[in-house]
Design brief:
The complex is a heterodimer of chains A (252) and B (267). By secondary structure, chain A is of the alpha/beta class. Chain A is built from nine helices and ten strands. Chain A has a six-stranded mixed beta sheet with strand order 6-7-8-3-9-10, sandwiched between helices. Chain A has a four-stranded antiparallel beta sheet with strand order 2-1-4-5, covered by helices on one side. In chain A, a hairpin with a 2-residue loop joins strand 9 and strand 10. Chain B has 267 residues and is mainly alpha-helical. Chain B has one domain. The radius of gyration of chain B is 23 Å and the shape is globular. The chains are: A alpha/beta (252), B mainly alpha (267). At the A-B interface, helix 2 and helix 3 of A face helix 3 and helix 4 of B. The structure holds adenosine-5'-triphosphate and magnesium ion. The site of magnesium ion has 4 residues of chain A, from helix 1.
Amino acid sequence: MTSIITFKNITKRFGARAVLDHLDLEIPRGKITFIVGKSGEGKSVTIKHIMGLLKPDEGRIIVDGIDITDFEQEELRQYRKKFGMLFQQAALFDSMTVGENVLFPLKEHTKLPLDEMLKRVEMTLAQVGLPNMQHKFPTELSTGEKKRVGLARALVSRPEIILYDEPTTGMDPLVSEMIDELIVRVNAEIEGITSIVISHDLKAALATGEYIIFLYKGKIALAGAPKDFKSTKDPVVRQFFSGKVEGPMEFL
Amino acid sequence: MATLTIKNSVVGSVSLVGRWTTERLTNLGAFGRYIYEIFRQACTPPIRWDLIFQQLEFVGNQSLNIIILTGFFTGAVFALQIGGIFQIFRAESIMGAATAKALTREMAPLMTAFLLTGRAGSAMTAEISTMRVNEQVDAMEAMAVDPIHYLVVPRLIASMLIIPLLCAIFIFVGTFGAFVTGVAVFDVDVGIFIDRIKWMVDARDIFNGLEKAFVFSIIIASIACRYGLNASGGAKGVGRATTTSVVMTLLVILFCDVFITYVQLRL
Ligand SMILES: Nc1ncnc2c1ncn2[C@@H]1O[C@H](COP(=O)(O)OP(=O)(O)OP(=O)(O)O)[C@@H](O)[C@H]1O
Ligand SMILES: [Mg+2]
């Protein structure tokens, strides 16, 4: 496995609590990787480290062979151009319409003619199942719709690495299914793209994921292909699969 | 035993003062870096004209009414107060000039800055801190757009352009307010009123007044945006950031006012 992102011995503390505790992690290039774990386990914190939005207290982060841990603002800005990211709460700009939100990354970083950009915006919004929504404002949307606009905004600039923070949470089963299919399709269609998905939904992880990382207590409890997860004897992982409260897993 | 307690408390308070001073200095250092970063970003293309115009409209146009209203009444009331005093010495013909001088050098820049802190500065902090706590600032960074370039620089440039202009309007309207008081209450001759103003207020006064307004505009926008970007902790954090930012801005303006006035009068 050639990895595109490597965490070496990463520790991140908030107050006294180490959310990531000497974490070693590798994300394979060109695949769909799922990061799974219970709520508050540090999944969002992990992908914010990948983007350089948070800095580790200890350890190094290597992306594409380059150590990004100590990047300054300007280097980070260049580095982030290869990413698309869907935030857990969508994080749409309230002051802009849906169309302007999705247009934003294109307008900032490409030199396409405006009508070309608008066409791409329209197409991407249609892909996430929201045609004719361009002129609405984020406050007029439901949680699931916001999420899909955020998804369109992450996809529109065709990034090399795309990070999805819980893309299907807050959506009905049909739309969830559609989004999962979209993730698979995007990963298949764009040459060399790497997809990283954070999810609670283990069924989706097993169905769509090619590599799964299970975080527990700031470390990896298990990482591997879906078949490794189906056959695992690890009691904590099995408990998470079963969805039962009784078991060895500790709740903070 | 007793000496030990005293010794401990002395050591304790010395280290407390030390810690407090270190914290202030660290904050000051961070603020210096922030100001440097703003000016670096301001010199980085592209210039975001659309955002600057949006802010000009917000800071300028929407504050115009309140500036005119406050300016008029400040001038009128001030003239009323000093008119009464000047009358004792039969010097009411220079009350307009005295008001204009005070307005130009001190009251207009200060009042304009205070009004704009409450009106525009607070809104800047509220807006940016809301974006911060809702991860919109993170999203912007994630999309490789510098929040200082996108959010702070347009607000700063717009403020630097429009606040001195608002101050000039304040001076003009305030003097008109004094004029109305002078003519209506103290029966001053129109020609003499204007003549005395020309005699007492020169270009340097106006320049000094606008200079202050210019410095205050930088203080207002940079502090407002700073507190916005540093906010944390949900809706409560937005409220906290806004209040602190307004209080801090007013204090810094007052402090700088003394300093600038001193320098202006010595030069
Ligand atoms: N900026 C921050 N300041 C302080 N604590 C934080 C911060 N960000 C995250 N945390 C803490 O880190 C822990 C992990 O947070 P994180 O958002 O990564 O959880 P998560 O795994 O994404 O959970 P969920 O599935 O609920 O989204 C939480 O306990 C949270 O309180
Ligand atoms: Mg999360």
